[in-house]
Amino acid sequence: MAGSKKNSLKTADENQPFFVGQELELEIESLTFNGGRGLARKEGFVFFLPGTAPQEKVLAKVTKVKKNFAEAMAIQVLSPSPNRRTPPCPVAQDCGGCCWQHIDYPAQLKQKYAIVCSAYKKLAPGVFIQQPHASPNEFRYRNRIQVHKADDRIGFLKSKSHQIVPIEDCLISEEELTSQFANIRKDQGLRGRIEIARKTDGSVTIVSGKRPAHLHLFSQVNTAQNQWLIDKVIDTLSGQNSFQNIYDLYCGAGNFTLPIARAFPHLNIVGVELSESSIKIAKQEKSHAQFFASDVAQFLRKNRFSSDAFVILDPPRIGCDPSVIDELSHWGPDHILYISCNPMTQVRDLANLMSKYSIKWVQPIDLFPQTDHVEVMTLLSRSDHVG
Ligand SMILES: C[S@@+](CC[C@H](N)C(=O)[O-])C[C@H]1O[C@@H](n2cnc3c(N)ncnc32)[C@H](O)[C@@H]1O
What we know:
- By secondary structure, the protein is an alpha/beta fold.
- The chain folds into 3 domains: 1-84, CATH 2.40.50.140; 106-136 and 222-382, Rossmann fold (3-Layer(aba) Sandwich), CATH 3.40.50; 144-216, no CATH class.
- The protein has helices at residues 92-95, 105-121, 175-178, 181-186, 223-239, 257-263, 276-282, 296-302, 322-331, 343-351, and strands at 23-27, 30-31, 38-42, 45-49, 57-65, 69-79, 144-150, 153-157, 164-166, 192-198, 204-208, 245-249, 268-273, 290-293, 309-313, 335-340, 357-365, 375-382.
- The strands form 3 sheets. It has a 7-stranded mixed β-sheet, sandwiched between helices. It has a 6-stranded mixed β-sheet with strand order 1-5-6-4-3-2. Strands 9-8-7-10-11 form a 5-stranded antiparallel β-sheet.
- Helix 8 (296-302) runs parallel beside helix 9.
C-alpha cells in the first residue's frame, strides 16, 4: 500500500510517500523515550506507534505525517513480541499512566537500558553503562497518587482530557493508598482532585482540592528505590576522599542532604533549593548541613568556592539552566554526581562539561516500572584531578 494515494485523508504535501489513513505493515525495532511509543522504519521514514512492543509486526493505520516521521496506530498485531503480555490492569490502555504494562518487566528494563545507551552514544562513545537497577516491586511501588472524583466515581483523567477513567484499584500504587477508595467514595466532602499520599511517619493522608504547602513539594514516589539512590550517593561519596565540601544543588527537602549530613559529620554540607517551603522542611531536622533557599544559578554566581568539593546535581526534568553549567565549569569542583530523570537533558548538560571532566560511570535506575521513565546517575571527575 505504500505510495498509494487513493485515500481522501492524504497530507497536503504530495511528495510524502505516506498519508493519513493509510494502512501498512510495520515491524517495531525498539521503544522510545517520552511517551514510550514503538519505533518502526519504512522507506527512510520513522514511525511512532503507541501500545506496541519490540520485535512485533503490526498492521498500522497512519494518523499523522510530518516531514520525516509519522505517527500510526496499531490496528492488529500480526506477530506478537515475545515480551508482550496482557496488561494486569484492566484500564491500562485508557488511563494513560502506564504506557508499558503490555510488556514484561525484563523487557522494559532492556528498553530503558537501550534508551540510556542511545542518549550517551554521541556524548561518550564506549563509556560503560551499568544495567538499570530494577525496582524490587514491579507493581505497588507508588507512595503518592492523584485521583479525581465526580459523583461516586473515582478515577484518573484520560490523557489530554477532563474525562475520568473510573478505577477500582491502581496496580502501581501501594495498596494502603488504594484501599482508601471506599471511604473516599462515601465522603461527600471529598470531590475533584484528590491526593492520597503516605507521610514520612507511615500514615496515609487524603487531601482534596487545593493542596497544602507540604504537598506541593517534590518527593520521590518509589520509597524502596529512593532509599537505594540515597545509599548509592553515600557510597559514592565514601569512595572519594579528597574533598571537604559537599554541595547538594536542587536539594528539595533534603532527601540526600540530610542522610549525607548524618553519614559525614566532619564534612561541610550545603543544600540549595528554590522552594522555600522545601527548605523550611529540610531545616526541621537538627543537622550541621546549611540550607539556602535560592535559584541555583544565582547561588553559584554570588559565591566563591574552592575546588576540593563534591557537587550533587538533581535538577528537574528540563535539566540545568546553561548558566549553571557555565558556573560549574568555571568553578571546577573535583567531582560532580548528576542525577536526572531525563537522560536527554542530562546528556545535553554534560556535553558542556566534557572539556574538563571525564565520566566515571553511568547508572540507570528504574524508579517507575510500567512507564518509559528512567532515572540516571552519572559520576564525573575533573580530568586533571589526582586521587
Ligand atoms: C528532581 S527534584 C530533586 C529534589 C531532591 N534532590 C530530592 O531527591 O527529593 C528537583 C528540585 O529542584 C528544584 N528547583 C527547580 N528549579 C530550581 C532552580 N532554578 N534553583 C533551585 N532549585 C530548583 C525543585 O523545586 C525540586 O525540588
